[in-house]
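Is this the right way to post structure tokens for a design question? Let me know if I should format differently. Anyway, here goes:
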């Protein structure tokens, strides 16, 4: 859940939204959204759908990137990538930079 939360936070920040603004768009309480971003709750599918619609991100992409689902192109997120995504000490630009560098050093994963 920490990885999913970090990913939701990343998308919210990229969209330039505050928790309050996302709350208004989704009808999900500000406090609950904050807890989701910190990995403290497992959201329902309807809540995730509402958040992904408000952020303009396909739900399947969110679930695949968080490692909840395997996407059609390959396996789940590597453990190193998941650790980077959930590290609370990293800012969002630092996460993206680390992921970019890490991915440049490892071979692409093959489906299967």
């Amino acid at each position: 859940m920490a990885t999913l939360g970090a990913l939701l936070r990343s998308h919210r920040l990229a969209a330039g939204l505050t928790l309050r603004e996302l709350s208004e768009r989704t009808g999900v309480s500000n406090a609950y959204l904050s807890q989701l971003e910190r990995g403290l709750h497992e959201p329902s599918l309807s809540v995730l759908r509402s958040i992904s619609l408000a952020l303009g991100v396909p739900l399947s992409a969110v679930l695949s990137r968080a490692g909840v689902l395997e996407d059609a192109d390959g396996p789940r997120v590597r453990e190193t990538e998941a650790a980077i995504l959930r590290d609370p000490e990293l800012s969002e630009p630092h996460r993206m930079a680390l992921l970019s560098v890490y991915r440049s050093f490892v071979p692409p994963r093959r489906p299967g």
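Format looks fine. Someone answered above. Worth noting: The CA atoms of residues 13 and 77 lie 21 Å apart. Residues 2-105 form a domain with the 434 Repressor (Amino-terminal Domain) fold (CATH 1.10.260.40).
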